Amino acid sequence: MKHYNLQLKTISAITTVVLFLITASFTLAQTETQLRPKTLDAREVRKSVQYPSNVKQIQTSNNKTTNTRKRNTDARKANVKKVRKNIKDGTRTIQYKETTRPRSFFNKIRNVFKRRQSTDRLQNNRKRNPVERELKSKDQKINRVSKLLNNVKREMEAATSRLKKLSKRIESRIVKFEKRGIDMTEARRLLKVSRNDIEKAVENINAAIKNAKEVFRTGTSTSRNSFGSVVSELARAKINLRKAYKSLIEVISVMKTSISNNQKTNNIKTDNTN
Hints:
By secondary structure, this protein is mainly α. The chain has a domain of 140 residues: Butyryl-CoA Dehydrogenase, subunit A, domain 3 (Up-down Bundle). The protein is built from 7 helices and no strands.
């Protein structure tokens, strides 16, 4: 009996659970149908939407443009039909219309007039202001020449400063080797020659600048003949700088030979002592 009662209880519990699940699913289905959005008709949507006044105006303007285009096309087609009919009948009447020229034609004419006006202005300026033009050209020439001279001066001064630095370094090495007891008389002589050449180059540069200032101060002419002294002084300065550079190279080679000779003499002395 006990076993039978347990079976009845389990069956009743299962039935209650099944009924609960069925009712829950039914309620969920009802809620889904309620929450699901309704499918509206396009006409109803259009009626419900309130368009602003601007949109209506745009629509009417678009309709007007389309209507005008249709009219124009219809008129063209009718005109073409008439012309074809007249050609077939042999009674074609040519109607002369006022042709409108393209813009390119008018632009060409305008450009021609502008060129003529510009040439006329140039000719008038040449006739009116010959003195002013000459003064302007002179000023431009003077500016060009002064810029060129400044560039040359800057390059020459940079070269002289580099050579002076090299000579100082070489002199410090000569003093160092003389303290070790190496003979550097020839190297010192050549260094003196190179320094003299550097000083001459500096003098030539200063003379060229002085002559150029005099030419600009007088301002009589800006031709090559007037700057002949300036060019000659700069050429001499260039030659002296090259000489100074060559003499410095000779100093270095003499120093190397004197150092090697000293090493040889020291080796001979050590061999003799041994």
